[in-house]
Specification:
alpha+beta, five-stranded antiparallel sheet, 18 helices, 32% helix, elongated
């Protein structure tokens, strides 16, 4: 059976969503068992017979089993963030608390808290910070602090407001309250430790509603955090249209600095019916029950703006979730069978951000992206790169995509400049952020850019020059791509770096030069160097020197480059000496004002190696004059280790020194000039 599953995966590789392979299994709903889910801690509670025969708690990190007294049907049950207090709601007016320890289990001494509002009905409760609990009633919200040691509860804050329903986001601590007779007035609260903060109230546009029916229902609202910004995701049907035949759309309201709420995005669904919403890796997933398909939207991608709201369409065609086979016991203990699960089942309950629960099967899944499939489905190359840049842990896939683009040259030629600019825009902002962190203050001339960085760029993938060089630009398949295409891509990438004010690393320039030399494009190389398209650097000059055998002019180009650098005196001297241009090296030393610092031994050794007595005489006399100027004597100091050369000079010119003086002076004059 596992083999069949593998075959299935290969055949159906156009599914871009899948359920997590190992679902959290729990006891399914029955006449004896009630199931509850706490979306804050992502825990499933299976309460058997009111808790008398056991409460099973399953979560990402928990697998608990305990018993409690049956004091009536359980309406809601949740653990505190530290797992030390269990809150149980059995009536519409109060919440009971029981201390819990992982060692001793449940403490049977209960203590409770009734809601403060008279005739108020509890709609639900959520644990917030530490041992603080927020109780939402139809008359408002009440924030309490639970003290497990003293087994008492203290009121902290309350807010009176007619409430129809509420939604809570455990990631942003945002609470959304629906109020008004038709429920279209929305009050948002930000819960901080010990306090409640009201955000701007807003109204949701609505069509004609039936008497007694709310214009906005709880199931049409989801709270999420997208790219670090708290968002309200609201499903709306075309005003006045029948749900099954009309079209629907999703509004995304963004919460700015926990103060103002703005309608920012609209997602076009182009179908009607029942929907459910998940959020995976900052993508909004909209499940459509009738067609049994799901759509994905990325609000970071550019859409069509109407001036205030950005309109987005599905990134690719709607597709079903990948079929899932559930492992079930076989006829014998050793046997295991696979049972296909009904996808988009009426028994599915969707929770934020990425949870799907099938209460009948007793399974909790996390919905996951299959990026490899999306790569095949998104045909627009620029859109694909942008999309992957927004995904976490997609660096390797992005590199593979860029490699495939390179293999498709010249087909992908037109898109490459735009792609490079998008990559380097993020790279530039990353570098600015690094500088800002090191300096401790924003860059004065780029304050605006740094602000953008804080909001957006930390959610985008960074591909720096090193990544591009190592994985893409140095990996061209030479046999299939024309060298001129490779040159074009390299220069285009360098152009993009330069336009974004990013210093180009020498290894990229080296790659350009070696590629040009490889295809014998010497004239083009000369032009690039002459017009400084390729930036001067010592490693580059050394590379040019090494290419002299292939391109003789490279030697002079390298020397010119070193001279322009202004800090490469040693390298220039070494190059001239290695070529036997000793007098030229001495002239350069003199012009650079380095005559007093250079090593006499190095020059004398080079002069001796030429077997040119006249040249050796000139160099020797040059350093004697230097010694006279510095030490008032022509003798070399002991530390210069020049004694062998003094002996060699005597050997060559003993007794003839005076005769050669006129020639020597003329040579030294030549050196000094």
């Amino acid at each position: 059976m596992p083999d069949m599953e593998g075959d299935d995966r290969e055949k159906n590789d156009d599914y871009y969503l899948e359920l997590s392979p190992d679902p959290i299994r729990f006891e399914s709903v029955s006449c004896l068992t009630n199931v509850f889910f706490d979306d804050s801690k992502q825990q499933v509670f299976a309460v058997r017979s009111g808790g008398v025969t056991g409460v099973l708690v399953k979560g990402p990190d928990q697998n608990l089993n305990f018993r409690m007294e049956d004091k009536g049907p359980v309406i809601s049950i949740k653990f505190s963030p530290d797992m030390n207090i269990l809150a149980i709601q059995r009536t519409n007016t109060s919440v009971e608390f029981v201390n819990y320890s992982s060692v001793s289990g449940l403490d049977y001494a209960e203590y409770s808290q009734s809601c403060k509002g008279k005739n108020a009905t509890i709609l639900g409760f959520v644990w917030t910070h530490g041992t603080e609990i927020l109780v939402v009633t139809d008359h408002g919200v009440e924030l309490f602090q639970v003290n497990p040691e003293k087994r008492n509860v203290r009121a902290l804050k309350c807010l009176s407001l007619g409430v129809n329903w509420f939604v809570f986001c455990p990631k942003s601590y945002l609470v959304l309250l629906s109020s008004g007779t038709i429920g279209n007035q929305i009050q948002a609260l930000h819960v901080t430790p010990g306090n409640l903060h009201k955000l701007t109230k807003f109204e949701i546009e609505h069509g004609v509603t039936k008497p007694g029916k709310l214009a906005v229902s709880e199931r049409d609202v989801a709270l999420a955090v997208l790219y670090g910004t708290p968002c309200i995701i609201l499903l709306r049907h075309q005003p006045g249209a029948n749900r099954s035949i009309g079209t629907a759309f999703v509004y995304v309201y963004t919460v700015h600095k926990m103060m103002t709420i703005k309608k920012s995005h609209m997602l076009k669904l182009d179908v009607g019916g029942r929907f459910a919403i998940n959020v995976v890796d900052n993508l909004i997933i909209v499940h459509h029950q009738a067609s049994k398909t799901s759509m994905i939207f990325d609000i970071m991608l550019s859409g069509v703006s109407d001036g205030t709201v950005m309109h987005h369409t599905n990134i690719t065609t709607a597709k079903p979730i990948k079929p899932f086979n559930l492992k079930v016991p076989g006829a014998t203990l050793s046997d295991q069978m696979y049972q296909p699960c009904q996808l988009y089942s009426p028994n599915w309950v969707v929770f934020q951000p990425n949870i799907i629960i099938d209460v009948k099967l007793g399974c909790l899944w996390y919905i996951e992206l299959r990026l490899e499939t999306l790569v095949k489905l998104i045909t627009d190359k620029v859109l694909l790169v942008e999309f992957l840049m927004h995904r976490s842990n997609a660096k390797q896939i992005l590199i593979q995509v860029l490699q495939s683009f390179m293999n498709q040259l010249p087909v992908s030629l037109m898109e490459m400049p735009i792609i490079f600019d998008k990559l380097n825009s993020v790279y530039r902002n990353y570098l600015e952020s690094e500088i800002q962190n090191q300096m401790g203050t924003p860059l004065q001339n780029n304050v605006k850019n740094v602000t953008i960085l804080t909001d957006n760029f930390k959610y985008k993938l960074l591909l720096d020059q090193s990544d591009m060089y190592s994985h893409i630009l140095s990996k061209f398949p030479e046999d299939t791509i024309e060298p001129k295409m490779i040159i074009w891509v390299l220069l285009e990438y360098i152009r993009s770096l330069a336009e974004h004010g990013i210093p180009v690393q020498h290894y990229l320039h080296e790659l350009v030069i070696t590629t040009l030399v490889h295809r014998k494009a010497y004239y083009q190389l000369h032009q690039l160097l002459q017009y400084h398209v390729v930036a001067d650097s010592k490693p580059l000059a050394c590379l040019l020197l090494s290419l002299e055998n292939l391109y003789p002019a490279a030697h002079q180009l390298a020397l010119d480059m070193l001279k322009r650098l202004g800090n490469a005196h040693e390298e220039i001297i070494e190059v001239l000496l290695s070529k036997g241009h000793i007098l030229a090296a001495l002239r350069y030393v003199r012009s650079a004002g380095m005559a007093d610092q250079i090593s006499a031994r190095k020059f004398l050794e080079a002069a001796k190696a030429t077997d040119d007595a006249t040249l050796f005489h000139s160099v020797f006399k040059f350093f004697e004059q230097r010694n006279l100027r510095l030490h008032n004597t022509t003798a070399f100091t002991k530390g210069e280790h020049c004694q062998p050369y003094v002996q060699y000079f005597k050997y060559l010119f003993q007794g003839t020194d005076n005769e050669c003086n006129s020639d020597t002076n003329s040579n030294v004059t030549t050196i000094s000039s």
